[in-house]
Amino acid sequence: TRLFLHKRLFTLYKLHRLTVQLVKSRLWLSLGDLMFGNYMGQANLHVFDEWCGSTTDSLRNNVHFPLHPHIRTTVKALAVAPQQINYGLRIFGYLHPPADGEYVFALSSHDNSELWLSSDQSPLNLLLRAWVGKTGAEWTAPGEYDKFLHQTSTSIRLSNQTRYFFEVILKQNNQGTDHVVVAVSTQSRQTISFLNIVESRHFLLFCSTDESSLMIGDIAHIPQTAASHERNNVQKPNSAPDMQREDPRDTFYQVPMINSTLLSGLLPDCVYKPSYTINGYKLERYQGLDYVHLSYIYPNDHTRLTHLDTETTCYYRIKPQSFNSYMNVTKPLVHKGKPAAHSTIKPPKTEVHIEDKVDAVEPSELGDLSLDQWDWEEPIVQSMPVEANSNEKTKWTQTFKINNLGYQGQQSHALNMKCRLTGNIQIQEAEVQAIVEAYMDKFNQTHRGWTLERMVNVVMNVDVRNGKRYLLELEVREESGVLLRLSQYIYALKSTPSPPEKQLKLCNPVGFRWTPEAVVHFVIPVKNQARWVHLLIRDVENLVKDTGDLNFNLILTDFKSTDMNIEEALAKSKIPRYQYKKLNGNFERSRGLQEGINLIKDPHSIVFLFDLHIRFPSSIIDLIRKHCVEASPMDARGLWEVQGFGLLGIYKSDLDRVGGMNTREFKDRWGGEDWELLDRILEGGLEVERFYMRNFYHHFHTKRGMWMSNHS
Ligand SMILES: *[C@@H]1O[C@H](CO)[C@@H](O)[C@H](O)[C@H]1NC(C)=O
Ligand SMILES: *[C@@H]1O[C@H](CO)[C@@H](O)[C@H](O)[C@H]1NC(C)=O
Ligand SMILES: *[C@@H]1O[C@H](CO)[C@@H](O)[C@H](O)[C@H]1NC(C)=O
């Protein structure tokens, strides 16, 4: 009986504590709420209506924010699309993870949004974890999680012994497919394609408070937090474009190469013979452009210029407004069965105001919470109507489902001049993973104790008829712990019919390999561009310093510049290896390039036809090598190519074979010599690789003084 009494006392004490809390927050709950947890499976939603702007700060500037929302209600999933304009939302409550583990959260929204998650149940410990945008111009399609770098959080360790306070802030202006979605994945940050929308099926949601019986003036319970009060600038790190942020690709050349003898014989040999190379017939002038296609890349390298992707351009391949047809409205989830009689599910404590001290939750209080005890009703889904009916009441609580649409995966590799892609197209994640897994299996069958550290870069080239070529760039760890770089071309044959066993037919494309030691020559013709030449010399000095690459040579051909002594500047520079040639006559790009090419003695070195006015990353030498494959007397060939066709890398031997620059036809102005060279390169049976390169820019410049005439 003593024990019994103790238990009673303890229960009484707990009831008392709860009552104090409730009184403090002026919140009264009915017994029903307590028993059945009516506010489990929901989160608080506060609507701030009729307020323009598309940044989250514009919402914070609203005088009624955060204490006097127009509407206070709840939602059952973190995926809302009210189909309204000029409003802001604040969603908050608790997340209860189903299991201990690492979670990655992702956000998609139109327009800007923020996801805040506390390190525990206290609103005091909120941290900004992911966001869409900062300036108001950023938005995503529904379910598009890879447009911006910061849409995904880092990996966050959560325990199912506690619940976590969270907040979502959305600001929608007056156009686009308004929505906000929070998705979660238990996979690592590198692989996040299988994201689930946060809803009570996967992740128990709790309201922070039940507001249904409260008056608009009852505001003491409304959390005032970092999310509701701090400005963007405080939380969001510098505003450099995503492409300029660190990426393992940019410095991968510094990682020592794996001994290539370890890689030989892993895969069976196969003949590399793409169906799209030209076999002994002549092209019409400039027809070569039709024979070039794009390579795919993985992981996202953020070369995409997102500001160019409006809802109506080709990126989404969907007509404006028709994102709706991919969004299924859900009838809110409700739990049918009552929790098992023995379970003691309690509502979350109603700790609220930022000033209130928040008690830690005893694990035992949450110990019985389990998703399994809930019998969720199947949601009824229907496609979201395209036109929101303005007479209808806004569906603030309308939630929806959306599949991961993989907008990136819908991109075509065809070059379409009318519909410019704004960045690299991406390989589907599941595909890359299957390939890399299969390759590492082969590797581990032969060598023991190696592990895959990470996929740094994969470039895929698709031959619709024969199969796919992959450049695998993997960081691998030797048994001893040393990290090494594996960078190799492999081929996945298209098997017809597909093999019954789901094995990938990987093979080694004989002869198709790149040479890490190949000498790279930058060839640049100049005339009277002193400022740009000084800049180039400085950039090349830095390049040599950063890479320590001794197999690099700069070749400048100079049409008697009068504005600087280039020869002297080169001699004084810290560039260890360069060649200089003075030329007579007017500036002719083709002749200038060819004169430079003629200085190269070794046919097995790489010519990079370059230009002034270009900013390049220090990985450029490595990039050029990786994407130049010298044509053997057999069939394996390739070359590297960037913007336009004026900058290109090709082995000297191959360039000689196709006849070099056309100096006869193209003299005193740009007149399509790049495209003409492309025709001959393709006619030579070579293959062009084309993709966007990180941190590779063309500076704005005038053409004044460069060419003799002004027509260019
Ligand atoms: C918490 O997660 C662990 C696994 O991490 C699991 O074994 C346990 O059953 C979970 N507890 C509850 C109450 O869900
Ligand atoms: C690579 O491995 C082979 C065979 O083990 C060895 O003979 C060779 O010296 C190694 N090369 C380098 C550069 O370590
Ligand atoms: C939406 O509904 C359609 C048909 O009802 C279904 O085929 C589709 O898979 C649903 N999409 C999602 C994301 O639930």
UniProtKB/TrEMBL annotation:
Recorded GO CC terms: Golgi cisterna membrane
Q: How does it sit in the membrane?
A: Single-pass type II membrane protein
Protein location: Golgi apparatus, Golgi stack membrane
Which molecular function GO terms apply here? N-acetyl-beta-glucosaminyl-derivative 4-beta-N-acetylgalactosaminyltransferase activity
What's the top EC group for this one? transferase
Which key words tag this protein in UniProt?
Golgi apparatus, Membrane, Signal-anchor, Transferase, Transmembrane, Transmembrane helix
Task: Give the family per the record.
Answer: Belongs to the chondroitin N-acetylgalactosaminyltransferase family.
**Protein name stated in the entry:** Beta-1,4-N-acetylgalactosaminyltransferase
Q: Native species of this protein?
A: Neogobius melanostomus (round goby)
